[in-house]
Amino acid sequence: MYTNSIPENSVKIITGRQIPQRLRRGASAARRIELAADLMTGCVTLRNLTLKQACSITGARPSQVNELRRALAGGSLAQSRHTQAVDRLIDRIIAGRDGARLISRLDEITAPAE
């Protein structure tokens, strides 16, 4: 029986390169159905998909994905993404119920010396 509450230590991880191997080994229709159900419920998770697999799932173009990967490897876009993520986190904290208190405390700490 499949459920959505699966203990973390029982999740099996399959890489993108393992998928064809698993399906080539004479996988019956029943095995394919079981794998699909395991993927849906989280019993099996996918990591490190190949470019072709990732593009197939998302509908993205491989050339655009490669362009993004090169930009990320260069560092400028990676830093920009990190900065944006930190900014969003700070915005969420400030928007919370203690945001005003946090801002006033920061103002106190960073006030110029008189």
What can you tell me about this protein's structure?
This protein is mainly α. It folds into two domains: 1-74, no CATH class; 75-114. It is built from six helices and two strands. The chain has helices at 18-24, 29-41, 51-58, 62-74, 76-95, 99-109; strands spanning 12-15, 44-47. Helix 4 (62-74) crosses helix 5 (76-95).
Summarize the structure.
This protein has helices at residues 18-24, 29-41, 51-58, 62-74, 76-95, 99-109, and strands at residues 12-15, 44-47.
Main β sheet profile: 2 strands, parallel
Fraction of residues in H or I helices: 55-70%
Q: Which residue ranges are poorly predicted, with pLDDT under 50 across at least 5 consecutive positions? A: none
Amino- and carboxy-terminal Cα gap: 69 Å
The rough form would be described as: elongated
Q: Tell me the Rg in angstroms.
A: 23 Å
> What is the tally of helical segments?
6
Arrangement of strands in the largest sheet: 1-2
Keywords:
114 residues; mainly alpha; 2 domains; two-stranded parallel ribbon; 2 strands
Write the layout of secondary structure elements.
Blueprint: E1 12-15, H1 18-24, H2 29-41, E2 44-47, H3 51-58, H4 62-74, H5 76-95, H6 99-109
Parallel strand pairs: 1-2
